[in-house]
Amino acid sequence: MGLIELAAAKALASSAVFLFITLLMMASAKRISTCIVLFSIQSAIMAAEILAMAYAGKSVGAYIVAALVIAVKVVAIPYALFRIMKDLKASQDVASSTTGAQSVFMMAGLILLSFFAVAPYAKTLRLDEDLLAAAVALLLAGAFLMVSRKKALMQVIGLLVLENGIFVAALTTTYGMPLVIEIGIFFDLLMGVFLMGLFVFRIRDTFEHLDVSKLRRLRG
Amino acid sequence: MTLVLLLLVPFLAALIVLTCKQSTRAVCVAMSAGALEVIAIANAVWRIRSNGVLQSGRYLRADGLTAFFLLNVGLILSLVLAYSIGYLRHIPAGRFSSPRWFYSLTFLFVFTIMAVYLSANLGMLWICVESTTLASALLVGFYNTKGAVEAGWKYLVVCTVGIAFALFGTIALYLAAVRSGVNPESALDWAVLMNAAPSLGATGNLIKLSFVFVAVGYGTKIGFVPMHSWLPDAHAEAPTPISAMLSAVLLNCAMYALLRFDTITSHAIGSEFSHTLLLIFGTLSITVAALLMVVQRDLKRLLAYSSIEHMGIIAIGVGLGGPLGLFGALLHTFNHSVAKSLMFFTAGNVRENFGTLRMRRIQGMARSMPWTSAGLVVGSLAIVGMPPFGLFISEFMILTAAFSASRYLIAILLMVSLSIVFGALLHHFQRMLAGKRVDVPVKLKLLPSDFAVMGVCTMLLIVLGVHIPGAFANLLQRALVVLQ
């Protein structure tokens, strides 16, 4: 029994590294579809973490949350985003305002920064430092993707990455929130992505492009 | 049951209205549902007054603070619905923009707002605040014009990101509670947290972290200054009844969420930290908003910036704390919502008649639309805090609280900003009101409902300015008890 728990703990510890890799790849990605796949992989890593936790802690609630993550974040949202991409027939380019090399460099800096940011909290609260740093890095990375990529869909993906960060933070600090709350948050997320999809179509129909940086009629 | 009814009425109304293909029938259904909801609210407020706290299941709870804000929703909802009868005449029939969609989305919006006020659990509270954004984003983009779509997109993205930070803050508070030995299943329940608050002090840093994130998160929704960018766009591009709802109900709703967190934080680690943060956000909001009001060109954007300013005043009132500051702040939320609705309603009439909201192109209003102009004058005198209107009393209370706490810098900044706002409104409105009568493109007559709405707002503002009725003061006191 001790061996299995040890394995679960190891899986948890190394999952932070996988999360960092998805972030760095997202920074260098040039196509929107690559980012969607990476988001799906990132969510799958989170699901694996929760499963490891559920197995170690023998909690039924955690299994349900893991199932929800797989259903919503690994399958449903990426599928919906691919459908939107297909229906829009828009170009695949993420329209980054920084070059690929710059983005990777920035992302590495953000990851480093997040380690410094969580160090005091991880010590006093006796939490897993790597995973907590991963949570903060996901948060910062999501914000970075939102401000540096001009396509409306990339802003949606940035937001999803940011939400993943909050999710990982909840997971590492408190082993998740009460189940009802988790379900509510998932529902909100799903509705939010649905609505943003709706608005992406409206932006396309009224402006005939998807470049958010050109939306600047309203100022001041 | 009382509480479930409050949620059930708007939810069912949203569904039923959608089945009404004829717009007259949609209006009838909407009005009767609105009346039912107002009755349900009155019933709930009455029961809270006699019973203290109402609890229904684990997730619905209403106390004195809830009752006070419910009264606000009930009043503004009835005003907005009455005003919408006249306003709907110029909604074009589009795919998603017809009267029935308008009412359906409005009731969905009301449903989410009610859910915010009734949630007993801070996690639920977050979920509900986020769904208010989702429910109202479609209303902001209702007209499907370039401006409306852009404003809707901006609103959705900025507020969702902002609110995500509030979730992070909520998780930090949850962590602090669990670490202090509260049962994880109930560690987000407001009542449980309030009981446990004094023992949360040991995790002081975590509580501070939580409050910073919550203040930024819900502050985005309130429209505090560095995070306010969505607010003028959303208010300006939304249909006018919805602008009034956003300003008079939604902002208060976000303020309510922040108040709940502020109370817990104050109980846990003392009020110093959270109140200083609120004072910083408040003063920043009033000064920046006041300066930006001078250069506005669009009437509804001007009103939106005025909302930012008033949210700043309320934050200052809460931040000063004490019975006087808090009383003034709560009273100010109510006064501001009445005055701001009145102003948005008149702005809607202006737009119907002149076909534009550009203040430069509007002149001779006093001659061509005397009643609307009267409403605008009353509204603007009230909003700048002139006696005998209610906002004078609440602003005076907050100023007094500032002086008695020896916060002279804040008091001076507040007075300077209020004078700038006064000058800005005078500058903008005297150009619009005065001048020769111009031939207005469209001339729509005001309906009796429009007169009723403007009359009720004016009456309320004067009554609250002259003498606060006993029953209302009692309700305010009960709300204060929850916060202290």
Structural summary, described in words:
The complex is a heterodimer of chains A (220) and B (484). With 220 residues, chain A is mainly α. Chain A has one domain (2-210). Chain A has helices at 2-28, 32-57, 60-88, 100-125, 129-148, 152-174, 179-207. Chain A starts with a helix and ends in a 13-residue tail after the last helix. With 484 residues, chain B is mainly alpha-helical. Chain B folds into three domains: 1-119; 121-270; 271-484, no CATH class. Chain B has a two-stranded antiparallel ribbon. In chain B, helix 13 runs antiparallel to helix 16 and helix 16 packs parallel to helix 18 (448-466). Chain B is globular, with a radius of gyration of 21 Å. In chain B, 61% of the residues are buried. The interface between A and B is large, with 39 and 48 residues.
Main pleated sheet of chain B:
2 strands, antiparallel
- The percentage of residues in β strands of chain B lies in under 5%
Q: What is the makeup of the main sheet of chain A?
A: none
Structure annotation, total helices of chain B: 19
Which class do the helix and strand fractions of chain A yield? mainly alpha
Class inferred from helices and paired strands of chain B: mainly alpha
Q: What is the succession of H and E elements of chain B?
A: HHEEHHHHHHHHHHHHHHHHH
Coarse morphology of chain B: globular
DSSP E strands of chain A, number: 0
Q: How many domains make up the 3D coordinates of chain B? A: 3
Q: What proportion of the residues of chain A form beta strands (DSSP E)? A: under 5%
Biggest interface between protein chains, with counts per chain?
A-B, 39 and 48 residues
Query: What is the count of DSSP helices of chain A, taking H or I runs of 4+ residues?
Result: 7
Total strand segments of chain B: 2
**Average residue-wise pLDDT of chain A:** 85
Placed side by side, the strands forming the largest sheet of chain B appear as 1-2
What is the assembly state of the chains in this entry? heterodimer
* Regions with little confidence, pLDDT below 50 for 5+ residues of chain B: none
Give the termini separation of chain B: 28 Å
